[in-house]
Design goal:
The protein contains 1 helix and 13 strands, in the order βββαββββββββββ. With about 190 residues, it is an all-beta fold.
Length: about 190
């Protein structure tokens, strides 16, 4: 982040428990070109407990704020930084806590606070895909800012249920005209990869 004069990195804690993956996205900062880093801080979009190494599988931590960081961090023209995440808790999925991969996605928006020498993060609206459409949620999210100011969020949707059909991967695109607060205009891209 050349404006802030720091490196911003995303960091993942991944805990496999009973065939399910619990993913948690953190960020950290370096002001000396990566020689040293701050302690990782968790990005949150809902209330939940901090990680406790003595109780790593405590439900107050394990079931809250699941998020797997996306492909890159976007610098928006307004100076904010945006980090999309996948595998977020899907509020509309009654089986959310039982799935190997969560069906939700969202963007975290960061503004640099010079006095605090840290970022202030805001969670955007969560979106989700039906488990009847994708078995692994909205994978590999990435963002671009379009010339008209809208955001385009591109993801992969996977179908790999236990059936004789081959693995299918399709592109999935959402648009936001209010900097990630809400999403719409879903487009399923044609074609698939097997």
């Amino acid at each position: 982040d050349s404006d802030a004069g720091v490196l911003l990195g995303s960091w993942l804690r991944q805990l496999p428990v009973g065939g399910r993956w619990h993913n948690f996205t953190y960020y950290r900062i370096s002001s000396d070109f990566g020689r040293t880093w701050t302690a990782p801080k968790q990005l949150r979009y809902e209330d939940g407990e901090d990680f406790d190494p003595a109780r790593p599988h405590h439900p107050g931590y394990l079931q809250r704020n699941n998020a797997y960081f996306g492909t890159s961090i976007l610098r928006h023209s307004n100076g904010t930084l945006i980090l999309p995440v996948a595998h977020a808790n899907a509020v509309g999925d009654p089986s959310n806590d039982q799935r190997a991969w969560r069906m939700g996605s969202l963007c975290f928006i960061a503004k640099w606070g010079a006095a605090a020498k840290d970022y202030q993060w805001t969670a955007g609206e969560r979106v989700e895909i039906s488990p009847t459409v994708s078995s692994r949620g909205l994978m590999e999210p990435d963002l671009i800012e379009l010339n008209d100011g809208r955001w385009l969020l591109a993801c992969e949707q996977w179908k790999d249920w236990d059936d004789p059909a081959p693995l299918h991967i399709r592109g999935y695109v959402l648009f936001s005209d209010n900097q990630g607060r809400t999403w719409g205009g879903r487009v399923d891209l044609p074609g698939s990869a097997d």
